[in-house]
């Protein structure tokens, strides 16, 4: 079965005014769709057509050399965006579990936001900034990935991530990436982030 664009379980305008409907529509139905289409194209004839995208990205050394870059870019694009849509929602607050974990690592939620924003502003060019669990140290980390590289390729478990490609914010925020990052903090689905934390910890201790 080929990879498919996931449906959003909310409407394009439901993150307004922080992320506008037009950006959401183009980002999901055009940009993400293109990654899916190119991933399917890259996988044709490789025997890897039925592998889940997570499995492809966690085992980059098993990819055929001539398709490797296309799969990293477009498989990463597909995985990263599918993840991103899930962690967006207006009006949630971090519950005690995720909040305690963030406080322990960064001293406070505010301090975490300062560091995360700094990382998003320092990232040169296109890429993502993530809050992950490092599966070796089992600690939270803020990490950057370039282009559509994915933290799961480096043994990291993403809890939340921000797309800082210009296509994610240019229509509304133009060159003002800082304003986009501030807006993003209003649409983090903390319930989902907490679920990713709990699932991640379970996967480390199984
Ligand atoms: Mn994007």
Write the topology of this structure.
Layout: H1 21-43, H2 53-58, H3 68-86, H4 96-106, H5 109-122, E1 127-134, E2 140-146, E3 156-163, H6 170-173, H7 177-184, H8 190-205
Antiparallel strand pairs: 1-2, 1-3
Helix pairs in contact: 1-3
Descriptive report:
The chain is mostly helical and 206 residues long. The chain folds into 2 domains: 21-86, Helix Hairpins, CATH 1.10.287; 96-205, minor pseudopilin epsh fold (3-Layer(bab) Sandwich), CATH 3.55.40. Helix content is 49%, strand content 11%. The chain has 8 helices and 3 strands; from the N terminus they run H-H-H-H-H-E-E-E-H-H-H. The chain has helices at residues 21-43, 53-58, 68-86, 96-106, 109-122, 170-173, 177-184, 190-205, and strands spanning 127-134, 140-146, 156-163. A 3-stranded antiparallel β-sheet has the order 2-1-3, sandwiched between helices. A hairpin with a 5-residue loop joins strand 1 and strand 2. Helix 1 packs antiparallel against helix 3 (68-86). It is globular, with a radius of gyration of 17 Å. The two termini are 29 Å apart. The structure holds manganese (III) ion (MN3). Manganese (III) ion (MN3) is lined by residues 27, 31, 81, 163, 165, 167-168.
